[in-house]
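Risk mitigation, structural track. In case the binding assays with calcium ion fail to produce interpretable data, a predicted complex structure has been prepared as a fallback.
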Amino acid sequence: MSLKSPVITVMTKAAGKAARHLKRDFGEVENLQVSRKGPADFVSNADLKAEKILREELSHARPNFGFLMEESGASEGDDTLQRRWIVDPLDGTTNFLHGLPHFAISLALEERGEIVAAVVYDPIKDEMFTAEKGNGTFLNDRRLRVSSRRRMDEAIFATGIPFKGLEGHERFLDEVREVMAVSAGVRRWGTASLDLAYVAAGRFDGFWEWGLQPWDYSAGALLVREAGGYISEIGGRSLSSKSPNLVCANTNLHRELDELLRKSRKA
Ligand code: 2AM
Ligand code: CA
Ligand code: CA
Ligand code: CA
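Fallback model:
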């Protein structure tokens, strides 16, 4: 059983409230207004409404904290510990708009540049993933551990298809080919926060994706770490850039997966 801290309670409550609206909109996707931010980048009024609710709830509970939100950008708070919320109100918009029941709300709390609390909520499956630095990862009230598989040929890996151009796709297909050849399979579900949550839960043995944004991975990265997993840039360096090429896995398989990805890029 987990004893929820005040900050996790704030986060799960905000996620729950935004999720009720998302679920309602999910039942009526044909009535949503959708616009395009980029070539394959969509936003709907469901994203915007969920973001507004999250901003209201979180700033009501913690008036001094700043924000980094996918749809409305960054705003500074006046908190002495430089705390800010990193928010993706709807991760998996494309799934959502196609009636595919696999999307999430992703909330992270950053303190002096470090992620200290995380919530990823899948409203359709009613799965609330939470983590706090030093206190482990939970799914609803159950403690999570990454998988303990040691053999690549028994492991399943998730990935995401890059959005940026043909060159990226070619290199990505090489990577998939390499990983497929030695593993038990590759999955692509289109919701990075849940891919990371599933690594934390031991459902996937690892995950990699190029060019994610802070709101896609900040919460999920803490879920993975606090569940005993290892996460880095492809090439082994610690996650440092704003938009990393990210690879994570249980500690048995991380190096092998990372080396495979590196090798396929050099080839
Ligand atoms: P989103 O649904 O919040 O945009 C899947 O590979 C991940 O990439 C998802 O977390 C998704 O988040 C994000 N994503 C999807 N389409 C994108 C695009 N065109 N540009 C950048 N990120 C995208
Ligand atoms: Ca988006
Ligand atoms: Ca996202
Ligand atoms: Ca989003």
